[in-house]
Amino acid sequence: MTRNKTFPLGGIEVESFRHLTEGSLIHSLTLPSLAVVPLVQYAGAKARWIVSVGDKVAEEQVLAKGLGPNDRDVHSPTPGVLQEFREVPLAGGEVSSAAVIRLEGEFQRTGKTVTVRDWTSWSPAQLLECILECGVYLESSTLDRSVILPSPGKPLKNLVINGLQHEPYLTVALTLLEERFQDVAEGVRILKQMYSPERTHLVTDSGDLTSRLPKWKELMEGVEFPELEFKFPQTQAGLLLKTLEIGQESLVIDVVGVLAIRDAVVEGRPQIERTIVVSGGGARRPGVYRARIGTPLFQFLKNSGGIKPQSEKILVGGPFRGRTVENLGSPVVKSTQSVLVLTKNEVNAGSERSCIRCGSCVMHCPVGLEPLNLYKLIRQQNLDQARQDGLEYCIECGICSFVCPSRLPLVETFQAAKEELAHE
For 257-280, what is each residue's pLDDT tens digit? Predict the structure, then answer.
């Protein structure tokens, strides 16, 4: 077991809030009577519908095909009739075409005995094909983009399984490691068969291994178990590799992704549901829940206990990188990892004022940028100089905005500038 450590530059130590959901069992929620399934399941997703209004669709049927080799298919979360296509808002304001499916008919898998497959004789190419056919989205800690599985053939130096808590409140990995560890172990064996890594690491937060290590070592022969300090943004892939002192020829996949891979290979199960943390001082019943993709957030929150009257803000994602929910008709998608219901005391709000040049944004930047100078250059429309000064290296962690006493919209400004540069 490796000593506790963390990345050397910047970052921020914050309360984990894991006590709100620690020890929670995963509860499956009621299926939606109307599933609203967007084409855009994660940032940058591109797909086209292959079904029409009036079609009867089966549970797990492909509704939309990914347009490119790195775009994922979208499957139906329930059996039913496709009532209409409509434009729906997603968390953060983006709008997507969505298929509205009225629940009806027989389930292909739900409520039936699970048939498992012996994958041990499959080639790496067969394993990858199965994962892609099931539309598995692998969440990345880098700018919300998906992890792209490399083609088998070239062995990896390092396979890193990220079991860390991504942000305050986000305890999904901890819960899944506790409740589905045997399945996690099988997912790791699948990945090892695909890529033959020289070393495999299952990384957890400090203290999570105390009582579990003997069982984990027994199920995961040859796997290393480093423990790291809880410090944001520890889970960002580049920072994590620096902390572990290993090179870039590595594949980093979080626990949710490992389980999605295992379920696709072992059970042939497409990605039609998501394990989601509900937390925050405004949640009546904080916990970890399993919901079908396409479940509207108003139904998801109602079925998971509801919200308190003093709630101030609802976020999809964490308090640093999450997106504000403006419309509770927004549905659960493949990239939904948490829904936070925050009170006024939990929201880091305030009026924007002039910079006091305190240097907090520089001190806490984990990649060594000078956020204030970038902000000034962007406000002066000098995007070329901002790019030369490192704008594109910004990992959009949100720390600079969080620590700024003047409440300058730093990360929001950087995101908009990067989008503008990308479209030049």
Answer: 999 999 999 999 999 999 999 999
Distances (CA, A) of 394 to 167, 185, 362, 382, 386: 18, 34, 12, 17, 11
Give the CA angle between residues 317, 38, 31 to the nearest 5°: 80
CB atoms within 10 A of CB 84: 11
Beta bridge partners of 332: none
| Alpha-carbon gap, residue 15 to 146, rounded angstroms | 27
Q: In the chain, count H helices and then E strands.
A: 12, 18
List phi, psi (to 5°) of 384: -65, -45
> How far are the Cα atoms of 24, 103, 140, 264, 382 from residue 393, in angstroms, in the given order?
37, 45, 16, 34, 17
Buried b (16+ CB within 10 A) or exposed e, 198-224: eebbbbbbbebbeeeeeebeeebeebb
> Quick check: 230 and 206 in contact, CB under 8 A?
yes
Least confident piece of the model among 150-154, 382-386, 409-413? 150-154
Distance of CA 290 to the CA centre of its chain: 14
What is the sign, positive or negative, of the torsion defined by CA atoms of 132, 134, 135, 141?
negative
Specify the 3-state DSSP secondary structure of 119: coil
Cα separation of 295 and 217, whole Å? 38
Walk me through the domains of the chain, giving residue ranges and CATH numbers: 114-267 (3.40.50), 360-422 (no CATH)
DSSP string, 356-389: ----HHHHH-TT---HHHHHHHHHTT-HHHHHHT
pTM above 0.85, yes or no: yes
Give the CA angle between residues 194, 292, 398 to the nearest 5°.
75
Distance of alpha carbon 56 from alpha carbon 10, whole angstroms: 53
Distance between CA atoms of 318 and 16, rounded to whole angstroms? 11
Give me the phi and psi of 53, to 5 degrees please. -60, 135
DSSP 128-179: HHHHHHTT---B-SSTTPBPPPPPTTS--SEEEEE-S--STT--HHHHHHHH
Q: What is the largest CA-CA distance in the chain?
A: 64
CB 171 within 8 A of CB 165: yes
Output the pLDDT for position 145: 64
One-character DSSP codes across 29-90: PPPPSEEEEES--STT--EEE---TT-EE-TT-EEEEESSTTPPPEE-SS-EEEEEEEEEE-
Could you write out the DSSP letters of every residue in 206-262? TTTTTTTHHHHHHHSTTEE--EE---BTTTSHHHHHHHHT--SSEEEEEHHHHHHHH
